[in-house]
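[job 0412] stage=complex_fold ligand=fe (iii) ion status=START
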Amino acid sequence: MTVKIFETSEVQDFLKTVSGFDQAGGNERAKQIMHRLLSDLYRLIDDFDVTPEEYWSAVSLLNSLGGQTQFGLLSPGLGFDHYLDMRQDAIDAEAKRNGGTPRTIEGPLYVAGAPEAEGFARMDDGQDTDGETMWLTGQVRDVNGNPVTGAKVEIWHANSKGGYSFFDKTQSEYNLRRTIYTDAEGRYTARSIIPSGYGVPEGAPTDQVLKSLGRHGERPAHIHYFISAPGYRHLTTQINLAGDPYTFDDFAFATREELVVPANRIEDSAEIAKRELDGPFSEVVFDVALAETDAPELQIRHKRPRAKEDEQDQASQLAGTAEV
Ligand code: DHB
Ligand code: FE
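[job 0412] stage=complex_fold status=DONE, emitting structure tokens
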């Protein structure tokens, strides 16, 4: 088909009307962004001769994504989360804010309000007997190697089936979610279970999109972190366990070379006894370097809707850092 109408003044005027350019009310940025978005999509429809059938099947797909709250799942799969990280890295580089452990995506499965502990916490509820015992530990330091005492280390990860508590209703509340404050040496330690990789639910709208691209929806075994301390830049990151078939083939593009960490199996009975465990375990060590900052807004995580986190929490976080 050779019909091309996008460049006509009729369509161009129509786009301005649709975007509210002739209206006094509304929000200027919303108008500009909508105009650009619609222009790009209208052009795409013209260029690819998108048929009504294709258009309405896309609308239906968006409805199912929204109906199953899967936009947050599809977003990393389409690389948006990683793209925002790439932009933030570039913004930091331009501002000469270098150093510290690299960031990587938060993912859609954080839940606020996990139980807090000093130095050590057990994260699993003991119900998941398929999970190998994991001893997860590390030291939080500044970029000069000095320990950071009292850093807030929030950790969350999946169980042996790849499911996250709260979203997976078979798990107990806050299972595999803890907040640990570092001890006098800047150390945190968690007893937990080795997580399995996560897979996008089979047949779900997100899966349909990925399949249409010939892609899979698998993530390697990984562990999420938020790390913060007064005077330091808030860090959102995660580690990917080495040796997983998806370590370097992550559908969510979260893997970074510096964040691939081995799980070392330990069978030595003295080491087992030292940790008061009943048998062999796997140790995962993740040390973190935090960059300094005076800017309070860089000391907290960016705002986004999160399970069990409301505006109030965000406001008190900000107030907490502003005091110091
Ligand atoms: C998704 C799931 C995760 O556990 C994660 O860390 C990132 C993304 C997802 O389903 O999109
Ligand atoms: Fe995850």
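The chain has eight helices and 14 strands.
[job 0412] exit 0
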